[in-house]
Specification:
This protein is of the alpha/beta class. The chain has 8 helices and 26 strands. The strands form 7 sheets. Strands 7-4-6-5-9-8 form a 6-stranded mixed beta sheet, with no helix packed on it. A 6-stranded mixed beta sheet has the order 16-13-17-21-20-18, sandwiched between helices. Helix 1 (4-14) crosses helix 7, helix 4 (197-209) packs parallel to helix 7 and helix 5 packs across helix 6.
């Protein structure tokens, strides 16, 4: 039975980055670039005006000066000719700076009178001029492979004239719930039955991680039916099952996976909650068997499945950020296993991050998942936690706890 850290390391060592596919820019958002984006030209492509105003020669503008206006250059237009001594050209933001001019006098800094302007003060060389290539040069790697595509990246890619880019393919994740007691949400719930929340909850977690969930439904405690659904799930990039992995007489998942040639890598992890979490491989296909308890299922997905999916989809940062927080209430516990504590977070006036439990930590209490802003990772050797003690917290909702 590996430790928490060992289990995470083992999983990441076993998963491989998926192949690339070409996507249009909007389809690439949130995905990881599979190749460098190299600029085909300078950016800006020419010296251009950063302001609406007048293109002038700074040598003519050491102080208040009257200049003759000889032309007009709109955005998208071209200069009709050079700017000579004592001359100026009306220019719009983004338009090319005409030959002879080396500065822009903003429109608010001049007085206009017919075909002439009067400067209110001096204009320094290069004022309000965007120089050719000052942003990016032709042949420069604007974005490296491995970059996550966001709005800024889309802007750069579009500025390079590209309509599409190669990105790492999204992971297709098959999700299978198991158990005779389960019914699909929306169906009548009889005595002894419960709604299958794991299937839809894990699908939601896959979506938030950037993957594509494939819901296989519910496998009953019947080996032939279970084998058929597991075989179907093994055609995906990743298979995730919930329940059926503990020591119960009807927990058939382990036996069925073995029959399907899934190599068992580990079958338990030294953690609480979520000890009956398993990881296996058939070829290069990862198989995660998570506990059936809904809280444990989502917590173990967060700790083990999500990082694996992100690695497979090309992400370099696969773990949630950790931040130190000051505990606001004692937590009774005995050393032995790494413990995941659902916590609420707040900021003190001095910026210190404060952590309070999100409520009853029993794994049957779903509402603590709604309240939790983070997960405190309590080391295996740690005993009782006291008020004021520092705990390391995985930030689930960093926007709520920014200073």
């Amino acid at each position: 039975m590996p430790s928490y850290e060992e289990a995470r390391r083992i999983i990441l060592e076993q998963v491989a980055v998926l192949p690339a596919e070409v996507q249009p820019l909007q389809g690439a958002v949130g995905r990881v670039l599979a190749a460098d984006v190299v600029m085909p030209w300078d950016l800006p492509r020419w010296d251009n005006s950063a302001m609406d105003g007048y293109a002038v020669r700074s040598a003519d503008c050491a102080g208040p000066t009257r200049l003759r206006v000889i032309g007009y250059i709109p955005a998208g237009g071209l200069p009709a000719g050079p700017v000579g001594p004592g001359e100026a050209t009306r220019i719009m933001t983004g338009a090319p700076v005409p030959p002879g001019a080396d500065a822009i006098a903003p429109v608010e800094d001049v007085e206009e009178s017919g075909h002439a302007i009067t400067l209110r003060g001096a204009v320094r060389p290069g004022a309000h001029v965007r120089r050719r290539g000052e942003d990016l040069r032709a042949g420069e790697v604007a974005l490296g492979a491995g970059a996550v595509v966001g709005p800024g990246e889309v802007s750069v890619i579009a500025s390079a004239g590209l309509l599409s880019v190669p990105v790492v393919r999204q992971a297709r994740v098959a999700i299978l719930s198991t158990g005779d007691e389960l019914v699909e949400p929306g169906q009548p719930v009889g005595p002894g039955q419960v709604c299958d929340s794991n299937g839809v909850a894990l699908a939601a977690a896959v979506l938030l991680a950037g993957g594509l969930p494939i819901q296989l439904g519910i496998a009953r405690d019947d080996k032939p039916a279970l084998l058929a659904l597991l075989e179907q799930g093994l055609a995906a990039d990743v298979l995730v099952t919930s329940a059926g992995v503990s020591a119960g007489d009807r927990d058939l998942v382990r036996e069925a996976l073995d029959e399907l040639q899934v190599r068992q890598v580990f079958w338990k992890v030294d953690i609480k909650p979520g000890r009956p979490t398993a990881f296996g491989l058939r070829g290069r296909t990862p198989v995660f068997s998570l506990p059936g308890n809904p809280v444990s299922s989502l917590l173990t997905f967060e700790q083990f499945v999500r990082p694996a999916l992100l690695r497979m989809m090309g992400h370099r940062q696969v773990y949630r950020p950790l931040q130190a927080a000051l505990l606001q209430e004692p937590i009774a516990r005995s050393p032995g296993r790494v413990n995941f504590v659902r916590v609420r977070l707040s900021r003190r006036a001095d910026g210190a991050l404060l952590a309070s439990t999100a409520g009853n930590q029993e794994t049957g209490i779903l509402k603590t998942l709604l309240r939790a802003d983070g997960i405190a990772i309590v080391p295996a050797e740690q005993g009782k936690l006291e008020v004021g003690q520092v705990v390391m917290v995985q930030l689930l909702r960093p926007d709520l706890v920014e200073p």
